[in-house]
Amino acid sequence: MTKSVRIDHAKAAVAFLQKPDHVAFHDKRLWDLRSKRDVQVHGIPEWETLRELASGIKEHTLSNLAEYIAQFTDRADKKGVVVYFVANAEEHNELVYKLISERGMTSLVKSKSMLSDECYMRDYLDPRGITVMETDLGERIQQLDLQDPSHMVVPAVHKLRVYVAELFGKTIGTDPKNSDIHYLAESQRMNTRPYFVHEKTAGMTGCNFAVAETDTVVVCTNEGNADLSANVPPLHIASIGIEKIIPTIADLGVFVRMLSRSALGLPITQYTSHFRTPPRLGTEMHYILVDNGRSECLAMNDFWFSLKCIRCGACMNTCPVYRRSGDLSYGGTYSGPIGAITNPTYDLKHYSALPFASTMNGSCTNVCPVKVNIREQIYKWCAVIAEKHEVPFVKQEVLKMAGWLLASPTLYRGTVASLGDALKRLPN
Ligand code: SF4
Prior knowledge:
- The chain has helices spanning 9-17, 20-42, 47-63, 65-78, 89-102, 114-118, 121-125, 137-144, 161-171, 181-196, 225-231, 249-264, 294-298, 314-318, 320-325, 336-346, 363-367, 374-387, 393-407, 409-425; strands spanning 82-86, 107-110, 131-134, 201-205, 209-211, 216-221, 235-241, 245-246, 271-275, 284-290.
- The chain has 428 residues and is an alpha/beta fold.
- It folds into three domains: 9-41 and 297-391, Fumarate Reductase Iron-sulfur Protein, Chain B, domain 2 (Orthogonal Bundle), CATH 1.10.1060; 44-292, Rossmann fold (3-Layer(aba) Sandwich); 393-428.
- A six-stranded parallel β-sheet has the order 1-10-7-4-2-3, sandwiched between helices. Strands 8-5-6-9 form a four-stranded mixed β-sheet.
- A hairpin with a 4-residue loop joins β5 and β6 (216-221).
- α9 (161-171) packs parallel to α10 (181-196) and α19 (393-407) crosses α20.
- The radius of gyration is 23 Å and the shape is globular.
- It starts with 8 loop residues before the first helix and ends with a helix.
- The structure holds iron/sulfur cluster.
- The site of iron/sulfur cluster (SF4) has 15 residues, from α14.
């Protein structure tokens, strides 16, 4: 989906920064996740070996993707799973709509799937009479607040619970003054659960890993909502980005050891669910393998490494810019450092500000469990954007001045000294 207007990350971040309690909470919450991740990682002496292994598995698979996709789909097909391959978001959404509407269904219970967000699936289905019910707590909060998810692992991370209590009070009729987390989570479950058992409801899951050797779709969650979405309705649709394929079940062990530790600082997610066949007689299972720009990205010499990403969010949690500007200021499905390198592959002009939203401190690269070379790619995207004259005028001038300053030691020392004097005189 090509967009024409360039997003202004800095300007969009201003709205977030105007709520100081949210900013402080966001920064602290994400840094807590980063700190917990460090504790877990330091408890595993072979962590760096695992990173090497995970990176190697991903690079090998992406270099032989057609072969592994064929293995995965052939096996699934033989077991009665219907497999489709779609080129883009439009084809994905049309197919989901067709599958649901042809069966006379009117709603879809959905566990977390960034791919469906990337395809803007809800926007497509809602006006066509299909109610999409987000069943992940964070996603549901964002849906009720008419906002996109704000973090790939913790979608409502920026929201204070008192705010959620008010929101639930207004939208699902709970006590707006009760911000107890258990009460809020229970209320959300009570609100969504009736949809699972409704006869006209289909179910959708995303996919963390698609194992070619066993044609298994593996979904990692902490709420069990993926299991309900896959097993209760008579139709289970799994939307799978083609980069999610891994070769063997042994490879899965490497990623499962790293995913939750990197994401939340927890050894493992509460549920690591494996889906292979329709759950019972008379039910259906459909896999939709989605390209949506991935093949093009794979052909980009410097940038295909971003396809190794396992969506753990560790690079976001550690990024000082992301922690202080919030997800929604990135204007795309993917934000933070991984968004800065992924989004421009979809639409260079629209996302041209994102690679500049970086301090280049390299912390993102250091924490990435699959060794995506994020900092290097950010630098290269900045060069590409400058070559294509997509840098906004003001930024161009600032960068020119910075270039002059850094090229002259005398000018640099003089400026630093006068800035020091100025800072002493400025109000705190
Ligand atoms: S780029 Fe690496 S650290 Fe960032 S979300 Fe992806 S896997 Fe996690």
